[in-house]
Amino acid sequence: MERKVMISPIAGQWYSGHAGSLRSEIEELRSGKKLTRRQRVCAVVVPHAGYRYSGAIAVDVYQRLDHYQYERVVVLGPSHYCDLKNKISIPDATHYETPLGLIQADVAYIKKLRNLPFITSRPETHAREHSDQIQLPLIQACLSPALPVVCMVCGQFDASQIVETAAALRELMDDKTLLVVSSDFTHYGANFGFVPFNKDVQRNIEMLDAGIFDLFVNKDLEGFMERLNQTGATVCGRDPLSLLLAMLPEDADVERTAYQTSGQMLSDNRHSVSYLGALVTGRWSAAARPASVPAADQPLSKEAGSALLALARKTIMRALATGQKNVGFLADMPDQREMEMVAHRGGFVTLTIRGSLRGCIGEIFPSRAIWKVIREQAYNAAYQDPRFVPLTSVEADELEIEISVLSQPRAVSGPEKIEIGRHGVVLNKHGLSAVFLPQVATDQGWSREETLAHLAVKAGLPPDAWQEGATFLVFEAQIFTES
């Protein structure tokens, strides 16, 4: 294999570009720290400012890790300089170079990642990005220079894409993989366009960060994203952090290790950035859900289906009546004493008018309560489907709602394993993907070959692209309709 070396673009800027000085800089940060090595740490949150600012917080995290537990480190940081909508970019490299020497990229692991539809490689994303590169000398010095690394830069994700993306990444995690999520917290000051308060600044910054991190500790993905939206808090790694939240193992525990702000360090809060370190203990292999959450493939009752349909209609109509954007999220929560409503399921909401499609949006992987899925996707199908203008009051009386509650998607070895009328299908090839619900082929009267040809075209591929090099996931759907 041809060696492709990515030379760190930030050496000499964010840390010393001289090997001896850099080693001394890190050793000084490490000195005096006698921390117990922790077991079963599957992920960490580490800041990414220059070492003079956040280096002590970062080293405090790395010093708690036992590198012998890991076969690789996956670094996931945000893109600060490039628009990367719903994508994650991995540099085209076999090695990364810092002043401390070469680091082997885990090329076999990267090859698996590149099969995912949201993975790309855009050189401009990595030309000056520091969020992933700032971690490399610390990994070399605090863990091991021989530990293979995967660098990933995360773009700006729509909320509706977070869960599905996280589920796909989670499939590639194992108990020998350490995930490093690189993020600073609140950026306060006019330079950052964020001045929500001008009195008791330090105290208010700490309270803001604590409230956000408490939601992270509680593994409340929806609450975490809503809090960031409501406060406008400038947490630069919000997307990597959201992906980690959606990926967390069932037995995960989150623990803050240290916290500091640049305002405190410089005694100047006019412009301040918050730095926080955290450990996530747990096992990526811990897949079983608590007994309180029903299994993802357990059928729902007719009563549950009717309740979900009523929730979907109420959400759509309330948004229509008030004209408030995203009011769908405020629809009344169903009675959660009915355990079926909190089952973690994938689901789609399909809208039709006089038999013609009027909107269809959903999520495939089961990562949250089905009532939350239906509530959000009902709103999206009516008002956010890019193929249609938002629903109008003239159309509302003729609207028919159909809900598809999905089983856990699973991979199949080839197209011959796909059963028309039973299976919904996800096709992936060359970073492009598309999905059909099981009823699509039946409604259209398509054969398996016709279905896959139409699916390839939907993904932006030639009609015959499914015949070679494509991968497939299949799932089943339990369908509830109003009619």
Question: Can you put this structure into words, describing what you see?
Answer:
The protein is of the alpha+beta class and 483 residues long. It has 2 domains: 5-281, LigB-like (Protocatechuate 4,5-dioxygenase, Chain B), CATH 3.40.830.10; 302-481, Hypothetical protein ph0010, domain 2 (Dna Ligase, domain 1, 2-Layer Sandwich), CATH 3.30.1490.150. It is 32% helix and 23% strand. It has helices spanning 19-30, 51-62, 107-113, 123-126, 136-143, 159-170, 201-217, 221-231, 238-247, 262-266, 302-322, 370-383, 393-396, 438-444, 448-458; strands at residues 5-7, 41-46, 72-78, 88-89, 95-98, 101-104, 119-120, 149-154, 177-182, 187-188, 253-261, 272-281, 346-353, 356-363, 399-406, 410-412, 424-429, 432-436, 471-475, 477-481. Strands 2, 3, 4, 7, 8, 9, 10, 11 and 12 form a 9-stranded mixed sheet that branches. It has a 4-stranded antiparallel sheet with strand order 14-13-15-20. Strands 16-19-17-18 form a 4-stranded antiparallel sheet. The protein contains 15 helices and 20 strands. It starts with a strand and ends with a strand. The chain is globular and about 70 Å long.
Structural class: alpha+beta
Biggest beta sheet summary: 9 strands, mixed
Helicity, as a percent range: 25-40%
Q: What does the overall shape look like? A: globular
CATH fourth-tier homologous superfamily of the largest domain: LigB-like
Number of domains: 2
CATH fold node name of the largest domain: Protocatechuate 4,5-dioxygenase, Chain B
Uncertain parts: 288-295, 327-331
Write down the Rg: 24 Å
Assigned CATH architecture of the largest domain: 3-Layer(aba) Sandwich
What is the top-level CATH class of the largest domain? Answer: Alpha Beta
Instruction: Give the number of helices.
Output: 15
